[in-house]
Amino acid sequence: MASNATEENASENENKSEPTPSSSQNENNEPNNPNFECNICLDTAKEAVVSMCGHLFCWPCLSRWLETRPNRSACPVCKAGISRDKVIPLYGRGSGDQTDPRDKTPPRPQGQRSEPENNGMFPGLDMGGGWHVSFGIGAFPFMFFANNVAGFGQAPAPGSPQAAQEQFLSKVFLWVALIFIFWLFIA
Amino acid sequence: MAANETRTRRLHRELQQLKTNALPGINVNEDISTSSLETWVINVDGASGTLYEEEQFQLQFKFPAKYPFDSPQVMFVGSNIPIHPHIYSNGHICLSILTDDWSPALSVQSVCLSVVSMLSSCKEKKLPPDNEFYVKTCSKNPKKTRWWYHDDTV
Lengths: 187, 154
Known about the structure:
The complex is a heterodimer. By secondary structure, chain A is mostly helical. Chain A has five helices and three strands. Chain A has a three-stranded antiparallel sheet with strand order 2-1-3. Chain B is an alpha+beta fold. In chain B, about 25% of the residues lie in helices and about 15% in strands. Chain B has three helices and four strands; from the N terminus they run αββββαα. Chain B has a four-stranded antiparallel sheet, covered by helices on one side.
């Protein structure tokens, strides 16, 4: 079974390998895909960088052009502003393991990594100190309000141990709140 | 060495493109453009419906060592030099992309197209006002002239 399978694979590979040489010949006959040609040397872009305006260049070609006119750096194609920091390197698969020609030319600008948008649970955390202040002011009136509502709802009989407990608790909360507000003013 | 290699490779590509993606009225003059890549002569036809209809001109391109980072030297040669307010009777052309506004993304073909376009927008065949003085005093190389680009209409 296993040998059969491998034979089948092999024959398939042979079938597949037949069209590949002819297609590569076509590639050799025709010039490379013009979509990926450098706008300066007209060859397939090597060490490719792309400008903000979307035009593709070899980094050696573009850097040489930028050196040629250091005071007027414009995109060769559309004359949009262009600079070393405003081009993005393109890393194709397998382009990294070739010899590094950066010894000859100025190094290609680095890729930039920007942080993703923060849609987290605590959007206020970004603001640092501001968050505490807004919490303190927002939360305490609510707490008093809640106490009052509770009082109106199920008023425990005055003098009962429940009432005493609630009074004690509300006093504790009041003091905690006052201390917290005082601490806020100190800090 | 590397610079010359870029130039040679690019010129080969351009020649290939001029032949395969030829534009009507813009053809490489194979007789004059010898196998050397130093100098090319392109036959340019006046566009139909313009003042230069049915006329044929010859544009000479000379490529400096730094081409395409440096602009080619472009001028009209031959017996028929178009009469145009921006073309001197010695063949020199006052066109900004040939010096200040040159970009390496331009090519022989696009320069030819610009020249044809410049001819086509002409309303009246006349020589530049300073033609006589310029032709007497100018350098052979049009790139040595300090051109003053002032007229965008033609």
